[in-house]
Write a structure and sequence with these properties.
5 helices, 4-stranded mixed beta sheet
C-alpha cells in the first residue's frame, strides 16, 4: 500500500489498489506483503456497484473470510463469503533461509508459505466443496539462487507441504524462480500446471 510521492499521490495509489483488491471477480484472493489494513479492508461488508460508473467503480465489492500471517507485511488468503462457507489456516511457515549483510547491517532472508482450506457452498468441479490453497513469498535472493542449498531446501519444504496438506492451488511471488515451479515440483514427484 505504500509508495513514494506526496500524500495526495500516496492516497490515489492506495485507493486504486483497494479498488482492484475489493472489486476483482476472484473468489479467492492471495496476496504477498499484505498489511493488517488490507486484512481489515477485505473483511468489510459488501457494497453494491454503481451502474452509472465505468470500470471498477461499476462492480460490487464482497466481504471475505481472511487468514493472514502475524507479521507487519505478510501473506494473506481471502475467500468471498457469498460463495464460500469457511477459510481455515492449515499452516503458516516463515523460514529463515540465510543470513546476509546490506551496507554493513545483518539481515536474514526469509521465505513464507501460507496454506488454507476453503469451504465452498457448491462443488468446484471434481474437487468437491473443500479446496486447499497456498500462497508463497520467496525471498528475492533465495529465489535468485544466491544460496543453492537454501533454494533446494525451499523446494523440498514446499513439496512436503503440497503432499501433507493436499494443496490444489498454488499462488506466489517466486521472483526469478517463477518458471522453475513446475520443474522443481515435478522433480519431487508432484505434477503441476503453470
Amino acid at each position: 500500500r505504500g509508495c513514494n510521492g506526496t500524500e495526495k499521490a500516496k492516497k490515489a495509489r492506495r485507493d486504486t489498489q483497494d479498488r482492484q483488491i475489493m472489486r476483482n471477480p476472484g473468489q479467492i484472493v492471495v496476496l504477498a506483503e499484505a498489511s493488517a489494513k488490507v486484512e481489515e479492508l477485505l473483511k468489510q461488508p459488501a457494497v453494491e456497484g454503481s451502474r452509472d460508473q465505468s470500470g471498477l467503480h461499476s462492480r460490487a465489492t464482497s466481504a471475505h473470510f481472511v487468514v493472514r500471517g502475524q507479521e507487519p507485511s505478510a501473506l494473506l488468503i481471502a475467500a468471498r463469503t457469498d460463495v464460500c462457507t469457511s477459510l481455515e489456516c492449515l499452516k503458516h511457515d516463515v523460514h529463515d533461509d540465510h543470513n546476509y549483510k546490506v551496507q554493513g547491517k545483518d539481515k536474514t532472508a526469509r521465505t513464507r508459505i501460507l496454506v488454507g482450506k476453503v469451504g465452498f457452498k457448491q462443488n468446484v468441479g471434481h474437487l468437491g466443496t473443500n479446496v486447499v490453497v497456498a500462497g508463497v513469498h520467496g525471498h528475492n535472493r533465495t529465489m535468485k539462487m544466491e544460496w543453492p542449498e537454501a533454494w533446494k531446501q525451499f523446494w523440498d519444504r514446499l513439496a512436503q507441504y503440497v503432499l501433507a496438506y493436499g494443496i490444489q492451488f498454488l499462488a506466489g511471488d517466486f521472483n526469478m524462480s517463477f518458471t522453475q515451479v513446475p520443474k522443481q515440483l515435478a522433480n519431487r514427484g508432484i505434477m503441476c500446471d503453470l
